[in-house]
Amino acid sequence: MTATLTSTTEAAYFTHLKCKECGAEYEPQAIHVCEYCFGPLEVKYDLNRLATEVSRSSIEAGPQSIWRYRPFLPVTSANPIDVGTGMTPLVKAQRLARRLGLKHLYIKNDAVNMPTLSFKDRVVSVALTRARELGFTTVSCASTGNLANSTAAIAAHAGLDCCVFIPADLEAGKVLGTLIYGPTVMAVEGNYDQVNRLCSEVANTHGWGFVNINLRPYYSEGSKTLGYEVVEQLGWQLPDHIVAPLASGSLFTKIYKGFREFVEVGLVADKPVRCSGAQAVGCSPIAQAYAEGRDFVAPVKPNTIAKSIAIGNPADGVYALDIARKTNGAIAAATDEEIVAGIKLLAETEGIFTETAGGTTIAVLKKLVEAGTIDPEEVTVVYITGNGLKTQEAVQNDIGQPLTIEPKLASFERALERSRTLERLDWQPVLV
Amino acid sequence: MTATLTSTTEAAYFTHLKCKECGAEYEPQAIHVCEYCFGPLEVKYDLNRLATEVSRSSIEAGPQSIWRYRPFLPVTSANPIDVGTGMTPLVKAQRLARRLGLKHLYIKNDAVNMPTLSFKDRVVSVALTRARELGFTTVSCASTGNLANSTAAIAAHAGLDCCVFIPADLEAGKVLGTLIYGPTVMAVEGNYDQVNRLCSEVANTHGWGFVNINLRPYYSEGSKTLGYEVVEQLGWQLPDHIVAPLASGSLFTKIYKGFREFVEVGLVADKPVRCSGAQAVGCSPIAQAYAEGRDFVAPVKPNTIAKSIAIGNPADGVYALDIARKTNGAIAAATDEEIVAGIKLLAETEGIFTETAGGTTIAVLKKLVEAGTIDPEEVTVVYITGNGLKTQEAVQNDIGQPLTIEPKLASFERALERSRTLERLDWQPVLV
């Protein structure tokens, strides 16, 4: 079926779509590319009305989900699809901070986001609400895994038909964590960029709502809530520095947009926020452009364990690059080995088990601290965007094995003695 | 090291431990069994002071975690271990309700609890806070998996040494989801009841804080928050009927205790709440006692895919039995096949992926509706206590496979046609 325009209600504060390149304006339909210059389209809001009609207390009185920020999101429904997404914990990471030599470190933990344990639940909640408003009955996506989980789950909750596209070599947990909700799953023999190109063709021929293609302007706005929530959870203050993973670059630009909107409508006092980004060395087109001082992003062929952020041709790469530079942030990359070490470091110091994307972000945080890029005094927020149970393959050979014992005290005592000996050997200083 | 008594501060409302059988009273130390009659000890509070000093608004002004209910929890610390545990979503399950023929069904979703995706994060947050107050530096547990995940993670966050005990045949996700935090893991060749007996011996000889043995009276109080949160999230009302899984029976009795305490201190209006319990047929000692009208629970040897609730000798079984009977609830059991169907039903209707314990609860919910035990008009709350990503083995043969395609439109079209044909065949009515 084809999309039809639903008129906005009085409650909605978004007004139109606007091309980020040439400024052409469009009705808020299911389109994502400018007809004139092929630039990406972005949602615009009536910020004056927002400044007058939305307050800290009106937000605080809202639901414990992303929908407390509904006036800042591009939907008209009085009842958006609310499965409890968002308002994930902001954890003061004291042990990790001490280990790294920082004083004010926070983890924004979307590894426990509802329902599918990644930040994608935010963007999909918005996209599927808008898809319903525009009359779509089948929803779809091109995904590196987390997005497929989220689209399938939230479509199930909302009773929408669903067909998702993934690269055929994804981690087992991400495939199973999609199939369980009963969608059609297409495993494409190719990398994400090939999946994405195929999906653009299907979007043009089948009239489905692809959350990250023809619904992308609405979808991507959901990531702004990761900015809003941090501001609210810090007691209505901006952080000094953020570190977030870069895949398409969309998340990164939208966190920044969220901060700026809250400043513009007077919800938070303005101050500089440094925005730093993390990539895997095996797929680091934005980090390479940053390092080389380029203002264009050259596509690469991904080869990394961090599959969820392995986008070789990132749609919003240049915008992310621009934000990192103008906020005095940095973009750096971590090797697969450093990514695994990052996952373990976060687990052992804070009790948070993240997937490879989170390991990348922690590894880059560590690099930026060691390089002196992050000041120990800065209030630094690190975005953990997905859960480690979905990428168990990445760590299973690096975490050891349980000690197998008989159900007898003597057997336990022997194993304990053995483990303590091993630990002592581990820690023995090298004799020279 | 040995436990030492820390005196309670003025801020604490808990006063002592009391034997549930003979009523003997004890100082709030690391003990769990009555010296006189071997009955279990339970924490007592100054309910009069609570009624005077705690209000709905004082709770609502608290943190977004279980610690908003701190006056009702057995800790003295001004800064308990708060990793954002609790305040998980209560989801109105409209599609599942329609499928089952209910009108007011809610899912309390601890599959997204912070940090380790099960309700155990609640009890462990309380137990480790109390462990620290009592001077323990090494914490431990006997676990069917989720508890080991939680103890290892929260101990890591708090900087406590940790050694956990699990049955050697646990699901891979639960083992890896413990090892990642860096504790010592003892895999015991035996079932949970054998693990538990071994741990009782170790607790007596090593002076460690076992969250579910010598710290059990404090630990188990954490489950009351699953009662408190539902009351608050329903707009300060009691539900009509709850369905929860039964392993040791502790969770079930503490949800009930939570409801009763809120009534006793005047936070919620009293009315009857029917409490129903779910077990797996392969480990159903409490359901068997219920069915046979017995007031004792005969131990069984577990044999079910629902390993997280496979406790053959449940410590609080008789108390759970008593509550189900006196509240006009019921206790029923589901086969392994029904458990898998329950997991899929919840995923396909609500987009929530739960583990085998949750599948058991959904399967039993369905049975109780079909038997007429649950009235369609009742406000019914189902407790989903853990995440499906930890027990992928249970469903991986029952959810089909992706359709593998080349990155070409024609390949996609052929696969889509094939899948639609299969679907039509699936739905074809049998010709007679």
Automatic annotation (TrEMBL), chains A, B:
Q: What is its EC number?
A: 4.2.3.1
Tryptophan synthase beta chain-like PALP domain segment(s):
84-386
Q: Which SUPFAM superfamilies match?
A: Tryptophan synthase beta subunit-like PLP-dependent enzymes
Pfam family membership, one: NinF
Top EC class for this record: lyase
User: Per the UniProt record, which residue ranges are transmembrane?
Assistant: none
Instruction: List the Gene Ontology MF annotations in alphabetical order.
Output: L-serine ammonia-lyase activity; threonine deaminase activity; threonine synthase activity
Keywords attached to this Swiss-Prot or TrEMBL record, sorted alphabetically, are: Lyase, Pyridoxal phosphate
Q: Does the keyword Disulfide bond apply?
A: no
InterPro entries from the xrefs? Answer: NinF (IPR008712), Ser/Thr_Dehydratase (IPR050147), Thr_synthase-like (IPR004450), TrpB-like_PALP (IPR001926), TrpB-like_PALP_sf (IPR036052)
As for family, the record states:
Belongs to the threonine synthase family.
Instruction: Quote the PANTHER family the UniProt record gives.
Output: L-THREONINE DEHYDRATASE CATABOLIC TDCB (PTHR48078:SF6), THREONINE DEHYDRATASE, MITOCHONDRIAL-RELATED (PTHR48078)
Name of the protein in question: Threonine synthase
**Species name:** Thermosynechococcus sichuanensis E542
Q: What is the lineage of its organism?
A: Bacteria, Bacillati, Cyanobacteriota, Cyanophyceae, Acaryochloridales
